[in-house]
Amino acid sequence: MAERFHLNTPLLESVSMSQKVGTTVYLKMENSQPSGSFKIRGIGHLCQQLATRSRGVVCSSGGNAGMAAAYVARKMGLPATIVVPSSTPQLVVRRLQDQGAAVRIVGKVWDEANAEALRLAETEGLTFVPPFDHPLLWEGHASLVAEAAASLGPGGKPGAVLLSVGGGGLLCGVIQGLKDAGWTDVPVIAMETVGADCLNAAIKAGKVVTLHDITSEAKCLGAKTVCQRAFEHSQSGEPTIISELVTDQEALQAVLTFLDEERVLVEMACGAALAAVYSGLIARLQSQGRLPAPLRPLLVVVCGGSSINMEQLSILRQKLQA
Ligand code: PLV
What pLDDT is attached to residue 322? Predict the structure, then answer.
């Protein structure tokens, strides 16, 4: 069997979140993956399939896909080049270099970094590792739901799954996992921040659209265009996708509350999902009849992220809480 790079993550019950939502809240702790986020599930799987005879990998990333690609490449004995936009905090560049990757900083947002990564793959003959738009990534991410299902046991079907959306790879993977588990009647609450809202904008427009710019501080949600498959899922209704937005302030507050209450530090991209619990969104969706009341347990994907430390946290507080 092929080596696998991701870990089975803990599924924790959060007492304080359960009190807020009024149903049991389970946290799938993807922050505890070796690369700091769920990305290693899909990227490990993709590299296993596509990079075993490669001369090296190149990945465009807001940070966390790059962390996963750098980690997996190191384990496979391959050189890794990670292309990140200039909005990526210095701490992420350092962490990528610590994983042994060569880092290139190109463009203002991920989409520009991605164009450069595609060019490098072509000219240098490297294996291109996309951060969210590939069936092998979705197949890898789906393992997260299979694990949660195994932890919850028979009869443990959740009432809803809560997650963040950047380019939509996590969403596609979770939906595949729900289908594999026979849980297509479980709605998915898909969270973005205002200013990094490419899925929400596509749903409103009735077609995939490209955002003018990324103005949110949740840079790892900052793809200007959602992947086609994620949009198609939003139209199919099986499972139902509830697309909602929070402000950067709400996402940051969620990061802070989560740190206080669960003693775990996650980045803004993850805070976007957590904010749905802390800001009362779940209760609002119930009162609007968009989620059942009472609700079976809520499964929260704590996607994690490496773009955060105490210094970055205080920079964000100065920017957003001024
Ligand atoms: N981040 C991607 C895309 O960035 C990256 O390159 O790392 N939570 C965290 C912590 C993330 O890093 C990401 C994606 C997401 C959630 C959203 O996942 P997606 O892109 O599959 O919807 C531009």
Answer: 81
Output the pLDDT for position 1. 55
Domain boundaries, the chain: 11-38+136-320, 39-131
Residue tagged 């702790």 (tokens): 29
163-208 pLDDT, tens digit per residue, is 999 999 999 999 999 999 999 999 999 999 999 999 999 999 999 9
d(C-alpha 250, C-alpha 37), whole Å: 21
How far is Cα 285 from Cα 241, in angstroms, rounded to an integer? 12
Cβ of 127 closer than 6 Å to ligand 1, yes or no, is no
Number of neighbouring beta carbons within 10 Å of residue 289 = 8
CATH number (3.40.50.1100, 3.20.20.150, 3.40.50.300, 3.40.50.720) of 11-38+136-320 reads: 3.40.50.1100
| Residue of 132, 139, 241 to test ligand 1 pocket, by largest number of atoms within 8 Å of CB | 132
* Parts of the chain with a pLDDT under 50: none
CA 259, 262, 266, 269 dihedral sign is negative
* CB of 85 sitting under 6 A from ligand 1: no
